[in-house]
Amino acid sequence: MKRNHYIIIGIICFVMTVGICVQVKTVDSLNTNSGVQSMAENKLRDNVLKAKEKYEASYEKLEKSMNELESLRKTAAADNNEATSIEEKISEANKLLGLTEIKGKGVVIELDDSKLVKSNEDMNDFIVHDLDLLEVVNELFNAGAEAVSINGQRIISTTAINCSGNIVKVNDEKLGVPFEIKAIGYPDKLYGALTRPGGYLELMEDDGVSVSISKSDDISLPKYNGVYQNDYMQVAE
Amino acid sequence: MCLTIGIICILLVSVVFVQVKTVDVIENSGVSTMRESELRSELASWKAKNEEIENTIKENEESIEEYKTQTQTEQGTLGLLNQDLQKAYMSLGYTNVKGQGIEITVSDGNKRVGYGDLLVLVNELKYAGAEAISINDERIVANTDIVDVQSKFILVNTQRVMSPYVVKAIGDSKYLESAINIKGGIKDELEAEGKNISYVLSDEILINKYNGNLEINYGE
């Protein structure tokens, strides 16, 4: 009887020791792995930050060169009617290209993920998706919006609105909720079109997304903070 | 004797618990692999942006030099101004343009092609770096809208367009192709819904200019 006890205790001890050895090994391998990964990650994070800072520095340089060009154009065109009219067209074109800040009348729309998600419902219905932003921007242009921005990103002719994972990207910049969409245009018309029954905002609200829209006489939109890329196209007659 | 064995057992059990906990904690932070690939794509996109902006700064500096040296004569001044205007108009969509790219044909099949299909298609092309896009010769510009009218036809820039829709885009044709062709992408999606889509790549895509006029009346 006593001998049996010892054998059982012996077996238990053996199993536990083996268990501990396996565990120690696992922890070891996980540790080295994640150690290497977090080091690589930190380096990547560092490089991303550096690239971002570089972009900001470059952007200041770009602004400076654009301002200098503009004043050179103005000076060169100063005492020549034909030149002045071309210079004015260039300024107007830059405004239409979104290369200047713009202030005026319009509407401001705010979209936010619903705070009322119940655990048994599909999360997807309650959050704002890239497609939602695409539809709202499209409706704004349909209602005659002249310029639109989302969270500080100006919408230009080549702006893509997409997502990576759960994060929405506009002009390749990551944006998070709440989304503030500003549109310049005739306020009553924009407001009326966007709040019409069956409109996209109503659909979103029915889905549980938090939606608000208001008219304003004093909206300011940022300029496009990138550059137009014309590497593949050229003027054709 | 029994006491010793008891103590050993307690020790072993607690060591096992500690170890299991440690493993748990480590695995929770194990999303690191995903974060890393995300960081990589982030870095690549910033690098590309930096390259773009540096090229533009260089162009501007060359332009500044030209203005400083070539504006002594009226002819020189007008030449430079017209060149800048042309460049701005090209970006606005006010000129016909040509270059390498893709020509996609989307048409009604068992199901009708809706405005949303074209909206998403155009957005995908923009994401793939398209510099100019048109649908049935309607140029996509900054304030282009694409809408359905009573589920019968589609308006682009308030102009009526009908199936088949020929969507042309100028840009890196390989990028543009993969944006359409990617597994589970828009081509697969439209086909699964019973709509037709095909494309050809070309070195000489021609896209017509915008026929309307862009205006800003409510902002300064």
Keywords for this structure?
heterodimer; A: 237 residues; alpha+beta; Alpha-Beta Plaits; 2 domains; 5-stranded antiparallel beta sheet; 3-stranded antiparallel beta sheet; 5 helices; elongated; B: 220 residues; 6 helices
Q: What can you see in these coordinates?
A:
The complex is a heterodimer of chains A (237) and B (220). By secondary structure, chain A is of the alpha+beta class. Chain A has helices spanning 2-77, 81-96, 130-142, 187-194, 200-207, and strands at residues 102-112, 147-150, 153-154, 161-164, 167-170, 173-175, 179-184, 210-221, 234-235. Chain A has 2 domains: 1-96; 101-221, 2-Layer Sandwich (Alpha-Beta Plaits). In chain A, 51% of the residues lie in helices and 20% in strands. Chain A is elongated. The mean pLDDT of chain A is 87. With 220 residues, chain B is α+β, with helices and mostly antiparallel strands. Chain B has a domain at 97-207: Alpha-Beta Plaits (2-Layer Sandwich). In chain B, 52% of the residues lie in helices and 21% in strands. Chain B contains 6 helices and 8 strands. In chain B, strand 2 (132-135) and strand 3 (138-139) form a beta hairpin. At the A-B interface, helix 1, helix 2, strand 1, helix 3 and strand 4 of A face helix 1, helix 2, helix 3, strand 1 and helix 4 of B.
SSE blueprint:
The complex is a heterodimer of chains A (237) and B (220).
Chain A: H1 2-77, H2 81-96, E1 102-112, H3 130-142, E2 147-150, E3 153-154, E4 161-164, E5 167-170, E6 173-175, E7 179-184, H4 187-194, H5 200-207, E8 210-221, E9 234-235
Antiparallel strand pairs in A: 1-7, 1-8, 2-3, 2-7, 4-5, 5-6
Chain B: H1 2-28, H2 32-70, H3 74-92, E1 97-107, H4 115-127, E2 132-135, E3 138-139, E4 146-149, E5 153-156, E6 159-161, E7 165-170, H5 173-181, H6 186-192, E8 196-207
Antiparallel strand pairs in B: 1-7, 1-8, 2-3, 2-7, 4-5, 5-6
